[in-house]
Amino acid sequence: MLRGRRILLLEDDTDARESMAMLLEVAGANVVSTPTAEDALAALQNTEFDAVVTDVAMPGRSGFWLVGQIRQLPTRPTVPVLAVTGHPFPRDGMLRAGFDAQMLKPVSPALLYETLTHLMGRS
Predict the structure, then answer these.
(1) Is the pTM higher than 0.90?
(2) From CA 27, how far away is CA 4, in angstroms rounded?
(3) Cβ atoms of 82 and 114 closer than 8 Å
(4) CATH code for position 96
(5) Hey, how many other C-beta atoms are within 10 angstroms of the C-beta on 90?
(6) 1 lies in a domain?
(7) Which of 2, 35, 48, 49 is within CB 3.0–4.6 Å of 27 for a Cys-Cys bond?
(8) Does residue 88 fall inside a structural domain?
(9) What single DSSP character describes residue 12?
(10) Looking at the domain assignment, is residue 111 inside a domain?
(11) Which 3 state secondary structure label does DSSP give 39?
(12) How far is the CA of 77 from the CAs of 5, 22, 57, in angstroms?
């Protein structure tokens, strides 16, 4: 389903990051995972990704900061960005912030794969 797709994963919680990376890798994705928004932005500036999956609420820079930075990148402003969060933010606010979709934790693997496939098919 995600075979050969390059996914950038941002999650500050180590266990959650490892679990999400494993879910994506099981579906065939090549995953680069980072614990901070700054690391994720640096990865985006050096590597082309098919999609970004990011936590939203984190200490330091948030997923909101990251998506804002992504949308300003001259080379990758349209990469699909999926927000994965434990907080039910209003959908219209998430779209206005620059996210393409959001998903609540705990994540359903089937919904994750379906959402990413859909987002990458649009880009």
Answers:
(1) yes
(2) 9
(3) no
(4) 3.40.50.2300
(5) 9
(6) no
(7) 2
(8) yes
(9) S
(10) yes
(11) helix
(12) 18, 27, 22
Residues in the chain: 123
* Residue 28: partners with Cβ closer than 8 Å, 6 or more residues away: 1, 2, 3, 4, 5
26 token code pair? 């099981």
Domain with 90, as residue range(s), is: 6-122
Look at residue 52 and give its three-state secondary structure. strand
The C-alpha atoms of residue 58 and residue 45 are separated, in whole angstroms, by 21
Query: Which stretches does DSSP call E strand in the chain?
Result: 6-10, 30-34, 51-55, 81-85, 101-104
> Domain total for the chain?
1
**Matching residue, tokens 């998903």:** 103
Distance CA 51, CA 53 (A): 7
- pLDDT 10s per residue in the chain (123 long)? 899 999 999 999 999 999 999 999 999 999 999 999 999 999 998 899 999 999 998 888 999 999 999 999 887 778 999 999 988 888 888 889 999 999 999 999 999 999 999 999 965
110 belongs to a structural domain: yes
